[in-house]
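REQUEST FORM: STRUCTURE PREDICTION
Request ID: SP-0412
Submitted by: Lab K.M.
Chain count: 1
Length (residues): 433
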Amino acid sequence: MADEVVVGVDIGTGAARAVTLDRAGKVLANSEAWFAAARLSRGEADPFRWLEGLVLAVVQLDAGPPAALGIGGQGPTTVMPSAGRALTYRHPAGASSDFAGQHLAQAEEMARLYGGGDRPRQMWDFLAAELGGSPDTQAVWPGQDPLEGFGDPIAVGSTVGVTAGDSGLPAGIVLAPGANDAFLTAWAAAIDRPGKGFDPGGRTGGLGVAAAPSDHPSVSEHGIPGHVPGIYLVGGPAASHGAMLDWWSSMTGRTVPDLIEAAAGVEPGSDGVTVLPFLEGERAPRWVPELRAEIHGLGSASDQRVVARALLEASAYGLAHIARDLARHGVTMNRMVSSGAPSRSNLWVSIKASVLGVPVDVPSCPEMAAYGAALAAGSAVGWWPRPGEGEAGDWPTPAFTTFEPETVKAYEEGLDRFIALGDEATRRLRRGI
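STATUS: Completed
RESULT:
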C-alpha cells in the first residue's frame, strides 16, 4: 500500500529527482522532472519552478500518497518567498564563505535587492511550507548552528506538518524538510567510518571524506558532522565537473552519453590534452572563484572525443587534488562512493578509481541525494533514527557495485600536470595577467 512507502525528492539545477522507498530501503520507483529555469542573473532562480518540478516528480512516481515526503536539494541556497526569488550556490554572494556564511550573505543580498520584510528560507524549508508545512521553522543538520533569522530550528528528519492538498499532491502527507544534497548523499551512502569518501556528482562534483576527532582533532572545527555521532566529513565541492560536459555537449551538438561513449576510444592521458574545469571558478581546494576554465595541449589531431576524455579525466583530477590536500593534513581516503550522473558511466567511474587509487562503489540507485531525502521522510514517521541519533547500520542503503583501481602512469603524470597548470593559472590571476 502507498502509505507503507516514503518518497524523497532532490531539487537540482534543472530537474527534480524522486525515489520511493519501502521500510527495507528498497527503491520501488524513481522519476525525474525537468523544469525550465527563468532567465535571471547568474545564481538567481525562481523557486516556484522548483515547486512545480517537485510536484511533477512525485506525481510521476504513480504510487499513490506516501506516508511521508522528504525534500532536499542544491545548496547553499536561500529563498526570499515574497520576492519569488532565490540565490543559489552559484551566486557570488558569500561564495568563499562556509555553508552558514554563504546563506547569510545570500539573505543580506536579497534584503538589499528586495527589502528586508520577509523571512529568508532554506530551499527545503520553503518548499515544505509551500506544500502545507510550517513557514516558521528551519531544518538543522546535527552539530550545525541554526541560521539567524531563518526560523525556529528543528532537526533534519522532523515533521513540519502535512500537505494541504492544494498543490497537486494529495492532502495529509507528512512533510520532512531535509538538507543540502551533499549531506543527504553522505547519509544515504553510509559514509560512517574514517577513510570512506563520496562524490555526489551533479553540476559541480566534490569530495567528502569521513574522519574522527579522536584521530584528527581539527576535523570537528573544520568539518561537517556526519549522520553518525563521532564522524565528521572534510573536503569540499569541486569545480564545474558536470557543467563542463554540459558545455561541451552544447558546443558539439552531441549528447553527454554520446560524448562519454566517444571518449572510450581515447587512451588514458587524452593525447596530452588537459582541462582545467573552472567554468564558474574553482572551489575546493583552492577556493578561487575568479578562475576560469582552460584547455591545454590542443593540437591539429585533437578532436571532440579527445576533449571529452580530457573532461572526464579532469573531474577525477579535481577530486584527487582535494584528496591530496586532505592527505597533507593527515586525512586519507581508502574507499569512495560515486553517485549522480557520473555513476551511470563505467568508464567515468573506472577513471576516478584509477586516478584516486581506491576502490569506488557505485550504488544501484544513482540518485543518492533523493534516497537521503527519503531517509529523512522515513525518520519523520519513525521508521529510522534521525541523522545524529543512530549508529552505523541503523539506516538502509542500496546495493553497490565495486570498481577496483588500476595503476596508470598517464594518470599519475596527468594529475601532476593538472595541479601545476592550476597553480600557474592562479599565479597569473593574482598578477593581473
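NOTES: The two ends are 64 Å apart (CA to CA).
Reviewed by: T.R.
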